[in-house]
Amino acid sequence: MWEWSAELIENVQFIYELALAKLELEAFGVDFAVRNGLREFVLKNPSNVDLLVRRLAYFKTVGDKITDYYRLTRYNQTRSVNQYLTHWIYPYKGKFHPQMIRALLNILKVEAEEMVLDPFIGSGTTAVEAQLLGINCIGRDISPLCVLQSKVKTESAQAIDKIKEHREEAIISFKRSNSANSSAAKEPNEKSYREFLNSINDEQVRNFYLMARLVAVSDSARRRRNIVKAFDKNLALMIASVEDYRKAKDELGLQLGSVDISQGDARQLALKDSSVQGIVTSPPYSIALDYVANDAHALEAMGCDLDEMRDMFIGVRGKGETRIELYNADMRRSFQEMHRVLEEGRYCAIVIGNATYQQRKIKTIEFTIEECEKLGFTLVKNINKIIYGLYNVMQTDNTLIFRKDN
Ligand SMILES: C[S@@+](CC[C@H](N)C(=O)[O-])C[C@H]1O[C@@H](n2cnc3c(N)ncnc32)[C@H](O)[C@@H]1O
Question: Mapping DSSP to helix (H, G, I), strand (E, B) and coil, where does residue 178 land?
């Protein structure tokens, strides 16, 4: 018998991570045992070592081979282990843990070149992780800020040379737009930042520089940093991260998946029936977290009307009991859409928590299970994860994995 040892990555600390690590191996049909100390697994007769090396999320090594995921996490311009490659761009609240999403894509058995959907794409975590695995991804979100983030994170690598060509002009025009004497006469050919953005024809390049401005605004507001310095520093980091993306692709020989990200409403998806092979998503916890208020600054800077946004966002309309009723009705419609567009026999992972609203516990997890089962989904796994730091609003997060059986 051939035995291969596989070692967990150092950052794996929680029970739910160990559970997901085991489920990943099961999804690849590997027979295994966990050694004493829990960090080392013995894989018995694995027939697909190369695939395991390319796909696993929680393992550092398989035999003497270093996994692709471990190598990818080394391309990191931040101090946070989760925020490798372009994941860190923009401090969006309520982001998925990227490693968990990679594991879920494995557990859901979505193969390279198949299509995964995230109808609440948020900061784009699912899109980045799918793309790195060669899986195509459709991402929808009602928020233009989320659409922008997700596009910049996944589409900039192909435009990096053009992005770099505009760097000096961006820095000059940003400084000009934000200096105390910005009304002073311009040098010939000197543009304000808005004029600079409008002068860029390439959408990916324009999106990148729009994002760079929003990252600077948010960074200077949170850290009370001078905005021009914040822009210079973050722009350098963003460019380095996008260059890392391209380097990682070349050095690991990745075939990136395609991305199709646009503004859309999860209650009414413009997608065909049975057209996706997996769904990974986390619906708004907006009863607990007001996304519109949270991102008001950036949404306004993008020219959005906040009242209009509020009407389309799930979970922020109404007060008291009405808010909960509207939330439930909206979520029901979203589950119906997920069920409609997923291929039969395939899986859907929904990450959701029970929130506390006006001192009342809202049982969103139980509601989700009940509604999804009514539609013809079968709950095949329910993995609990305790959240730290949000104790007053949310205590636990569950990952619910459903199979579409009819
Ligand atoms: C929990 S967040 C998703 C976070 C995401 N998983 C990530 O890693 O960043 C939920 C998202 O739902 C979006 N949303 C709210 N109402 C929506 C609607 N009607 N259709 C689509 N997206 C909506 C919000 O903008 C928010 O980005």
Answer: helix
**Cα 277 to averaged position of ligand 1 atoms, centre (Å):** 20
> Angle at the Cα of 308 (from 302 to 311), degrees rounded to 5?
130
The pLDDT value recorded for residue 388 is 63
- Mean pLDDT for the stretch of residues 310-337: 92
Which pLDDT value is given to residue 106? 98
Q: What is the mean pLDDT of the segment spanning 187-216?
A: 90
Residues with CB under 6 A from ligand 1: 92, 94-96, 119-120, 122-123, 125, 140-143, 146, 265-267, 282, 284-285, 291, 312-314
Whether residue 141 contacts residue 264, with contact meaning beta carbons closer than 8 Å, is answered with yes
Distance CA 60, CA 67 (A): 6
**pTM of this structure:** 0.95
- Looking at the CA of residue 122, tell me the nearest atom of ligand 1: 27
The residue to mutate among 97, 313, 336, having the most atoms of ligand 1 within 8 angstroms of its beta carbon, is 313
Which range, of 94-103, 121-130, 204-213, averages the lowest pLDDT?
Answer: 94-103
Percent of the chain with pLDDT over 70: 94
Report the C-alpha gap between 107 and 222 in whole angstroms.
37
Mean per-residue pLDDT of the chain: 92
Atom of ligand 1 nearest to the CA of 265: 20
pLDDT tens-digit series, residues 87-100: 999 988 878 899 99
Concatenate the DSSP letters of all residues of 313-337 into one string: STT-SSSHHHHHHHHHHHHHHHHHH
Distance between alpha carbon 310 and the CA centroid of its chain, in Å? 22
Give the Cβ contact number of residue 53 at 10 Å: 20
Q: In 325-361, which positions are buried (b, 16+ CB within 10 angstroms) versus exposed (e)?
A: ebbbebbbebbbbbbebbeeebbbbbbbbbbbeeeee
